[in-house]
Amino acid sequence: FFFFFFGTRQQKLHTMLRASVLLRGVLAGLKQTGARTASCLLNHTVAAPSISTSICTRHASTSSTSTEQIPDKMVVGESREMKKAFTPEEVHAFATMSGDMNPLHIDEEFAKTTMFGRCIVHGVLMNGLCSGILGASFPGPGAIYLGQEIAFKSPLFVNEEATARVTLTYLREDKPIARFTTECFNSDGKLLMTGQATVMLPFELHRRSVLAKS
Length: 214
Fold this sequence. Notes:
With about 210 residues, the chain is α+β, with helices and mostly antiparallel strands. It has helices at about 1-5, 10-60, 90-100, 105, 110, 125-135, 205-214, and strands spanning about 80-85, 145-150, 160-170, 175-185, 190-200.
């Protein structure tokens, strides 16, 4: 483009024509590249929700939560229970995952030498039953565990059936906060564990519960 500044009028016109052709070529290239990029972005955007949807659908189909068990409102004094006996395999699996390999839980020969005489279940597994009630049915999906106090009174033995019970004791009206007693009993009705859980309720469930209370 040296001649554009110092060349003749004809040379300047020729240079401007060449520049115009070159500029149109560049713009056409950019347009094609932009179209390909937009197409890639569009395809990516469309594909992403289908992956997310399939995951959510799979989780929903494998959930054991029954919508018939989930309350449409909650009343102070209401309770829910569930029963379960922990097998040696389940206790050993938890010991492996948590790192709590205390032989009192997984070694029958060692457990015979202790005051209990046989293997006992990890205490937090008993509380896990209460967590299962809170998360699956009472209050149910959408509930958020905020805090827990626990006191263990007696051991639960491996293969012994336990009954976990969750009872609503307090419902805050200005915020979706509730408190529950959490208890666990053996087959003879003996108290094994007691505690208190603080839970954030789903907003709509809280609203209906407050309206029913008033």
